[in-house]
Amino acid sequence: MSSTSFTGIPVGRLTGIVAIAGLVSLTLLYFWTSPLTNCPPRLPQFKQLSDGHHEDKNNSIAEEKVVKPVLLLWVWPVNYRFDFKDCKTVYNIDGCHLTDDRALYSSSDAVLIFHKSISWDLLNLPQSPRPSFQKWIWLNVESPTNTRKIPGTENLFNLTLSYREDADIPVRLRLTSNKTPNEDFKIPKKDKLVCWIVSNNAAYTGVGTRNAYYNELKKHVNVHMFGKAYGRFLDYKDYYSTIASCKFYLSFENSIHKDYITEKFNGPLSAGTVPVVLGPPRKNYERFAPRDSFIHVDDFPDAKSLAEYLTQLDRDEDAYRRYFNWRRHFSARPHLVVQNQEFVLSICTACDHVARHKEYQEAHDIYEWFFN
C-alpha cells in the first residue's frame, strides 16, 4: 500500500508532478534567456528631425550617417544662383546640407560669406551673436589686384577659401592620374591656330600686362577673338567646342600673382587644346600640370619669337602632338560651363570641407596673409 503526503496525494504521483513541473520550468527558462531566432528583430525607434531626416535612438552611428552639417550661404556671389544639387551631380559632393535660408543661422555649422558682397559698414553681415560652434568662411577667388580691404573684417573669419594653395580651403579643379595609361585620346579637329575669349577688359582689373602682350603678338600671328569685350559674345554651350577647334588658346590672366591660375588654364587642357599662359612663373604652373602640357610666354624673349614658334608647330604635326603626351597618364576634368562657374566649384568645395572637418579653427588677419 502506497504512502500519502500531507496533501493527500500519493507520494509516487506527487514526485511525478514535481518532475514534470521542473521540466516545464527549465524549458521556459531556456527560451526566456536564449535569442528567438525565428522572431522578427526589434525595429529601431526613430524620431523626426527638423530637416526631415530621422534619428535612430538605438544607434548613434546611424544618426551620424543621416545628420549632415549645415552650410549657410549668406549671400549669393554677384547674385548668381544655381541648383545646390549640382554639387552632387557635377562634383560628387554631398556631405553637407547647403542652404541660403538665413532663418537657419543659429543652427548652421558654418556660414559662407562672399568677400565682394560685404558692405563697407559691415551691416549686411550676420548681426546675431555667433554660436560657439559656428565657423565663418571667407570666400574670395579674386586676385589681390582685384580685392579691396574692408576695415573690421580682418579677424572675423575662421577659414579662408581661395585659389591660393595655402588657403584653409584651396579651390581648384585638378588633373587626375590615370590608373592605367590611356592610349585612346584623340586631338580634336582644328580649324584655327590661336584663339582668345575675353569677357572683361576693364583697366582696373589689372589687364595692362596681358593687353600689351596681345597687342604685340597679333602683329605676327592671327588671333581669333571671342567674348563680350570684343563684341562677339560666345554662348556658354559653345565654350568647349570653340576652344577645342583651336590649336592654341591664350590663357592670359588679368593679373599676376602666386597660384592665380584660373579656369582659363583648365579649360583648354580639358578641351584638347594647348594653353599659352601668361601669369605667375612657369614653376608655379608646373605644380598643377605637366611641364610639357602648356607653353609659357616667359620661354621666349618676345611676342614675335612666340608667334614664330606657334607657326612652326602648326607645320610640324609630330612636334605639336607631343604637347598631348601627358594625356596618357592624366585626365583633365572640365568646369561646369555656366556663368560665374568658379562660384559653383567654390561653394561645393566649402561643403566638402565642412563635412570632413569638424574641428574649430581661427584665421587671424586674413589680409596680411592674402596680400603677401
Automatic annotation (TrEMBL):
EC number: 2.4.1.-
Keywords: Disulfide bond, Glycoprotein, Glycosyltransferase, Golgi apparatus, Lipid metabolism, Membrane, Signal-anchor, Transferase, Transmembrane, Transmembrane helix
A molecular function GO annotation: 4-galactosyl-N-acetylglucosaminide 3-alpha-L-fucosyltransferase activity
Catalytic activity from the UniProt record: an N-acetyl-alpha-neuraminyl-(2->3)-beta-D-galactosyl-(1->4)-N-acetyl-beta-D-glucosaminyl derivative + GDP-beta-L-fucose = an alpha-Neu5Ac-(2->3)-beta-D-Gal-(1->4)-[alpha-L-Fuc-(1->3)]-beta-D-GlcNAc derivative + GDP + H(+); an alpha-Neu5Ac-(2->3)-beta-D-Gal-(1->4)-beta-D-GlcNAc-(1->3)-beta-D-Gal-(1->4)-beta-D-GlcNAc derivative + GDP-beta-L-fucose = an alpha-Neu5Ac-(2->3)-beta-D-Gal-(1->4)-beta-D-GlcNAc-(1->3)-beta-D-Gal-(1->4)-[alpha-L-Fuc-(1->3)]-beta-D-GlcNAc derivative + GDP + H(+); beta-D-Gal-(1->4)-beta-D-GlcNAc-(1->3)-beta-D-Gal-(1->4)-D-Glc + GDP-beta-L-fucose = beta-D-Gal-(1->4)-[alpha-L-Fuc-(1->3)]-beta-D-GlcNAc-(1->3)-beta-D-Gal-(1->4)-D-Glc + GDP + H(+); a beta-D-galactosyl-(1->4)-N-acetyl-beta-D-glucosaminyl derivative + GDP-beta-L-fucose = a beta-D-galactosyl-(1->4)-[alpha-L-fucosyl-(1->3)]-N-acetyl-beta-D-glucosaminyl derivative + GDP + H(+)
Record-annotated Fucosyltransferase N-terminal domain positions: 68-172
Root EC class: transferase
Subunit structure: Homodimer.
Entry keyword annotation includes Transmembrane: yes
Transmembrane segments: 12-32
UniProt GO BP: lipid metabolic process
Lineage per the UniProt record: Eukaryota, Metazoa, Chordata, Craniata, Vertebrata
UniProt xrefs under InterPro entries: Glyco_tran_10_C, Glyco_tran_10_N, Glyco_trans_10, GT10-like_C_sf
Species name: Triplophysa tibetana
Protein name: Fucosyltransferase
Keyword Glycosyltransferase: yes
Compartments (UniProt record): Golgi apparatus, Golgi stack membrane; Golgi apparatus, trans-Golgi network membrane
Family membership noted in the UniProt record: Belongs to the glycosyltransferase 10 family.
CC annotations in GO: Golgi cisterna membrane
Membrane topology: Single-pass type II membrane protein
Domain Fucosyltransferase C-terminal: 188-369
Matches recorded under Pfam families: Glyco_tran_10_N, Glyco_transf_10
Main location (coarse class): Golgi
